[in-house]
Write a structure and sequence with these properties.
This protein is of the alpha+beta class. The protein has 7 helices and 12 strands. It has helices at about 10-20, 20-30, 55-60, 150-160, 195-205, 240-255, 260-265; strands at about 1-10, 70-75, 80-85, 90, 95-105, 105-115, 125-130, 145-150, 160-170, 185-190, 205-210, 235.
Length: about 270
Amino acid sequence: MIAVRLLLDAATSCARVAGKCFLPCLACLAAASPLAAEQPTVHWQHASAMPPGAIGGQRLERGGPLHGYFQPVEIRVPGGAQVAVAADGTFQQAAKVVKVAMLVAPVYRLRVTQIQNHEGEEVYPTIEVIDRLYPPPGQAARFPIPVHITQQDLELALGGRFVTRVIYLEDPERALPVATDETEMNWFEAPAGQDPLAVADGLGRPVAILRIGSRVPETVEPDERFLFGCPPVRSLSVGTEAERQSQARTMVTYQNRDLGSDQHDRTAPK
């Protein structure tokens, strides 16, 4: 999988979220309409700056085997940092790699601590799963959505920037047939003026959105609102090193097989 990243100043990101970016979204659709016959079919006609939870919620409305499905997600942080997921009103045990299963649409709050060169500072990203994967039966835990938070992401957030990453499953007809290192995730910056969700959609099937900003809880114990109501989450074993290496070797094959369901998504009504 690959991620597309967008950087915004904190003030700019707040303005775009508050306005829901309807104008840029409509402008994009209007510009594309004269060439509709030449453009690939897309999954999304939304902007990544819509309020957290809105994009996943609209995906549920389109139907499909999504309601109640717990999608495995593997979260990885750099260096000696630790990450924890909020559940049951508090943050769970922190680790360098956390593997959990999340529902499609709810927003999950994370806490990143022990950040290199930033002793005592913390960052609170969010993850919104906006679609699911379709692995072989009984093997869902072997193929989680990878969510990698880099040192640069954390430093940008601590400096007041707002980082948005859209993780997408590559189109099997365009994906490069090369193995990937599970500790490294390929990503690139969204071109200036372009929405990362639209960019990702043109290259594959968006499955998750990671948002990283400088917002911190106003109280020592985060309230339910800050934690987005603490949606249910299921803990999964990270697995042994041999299992992880096996997963990395089979990921490319999986990426090229998975999208039997992708054809359904491409023709689903928007």
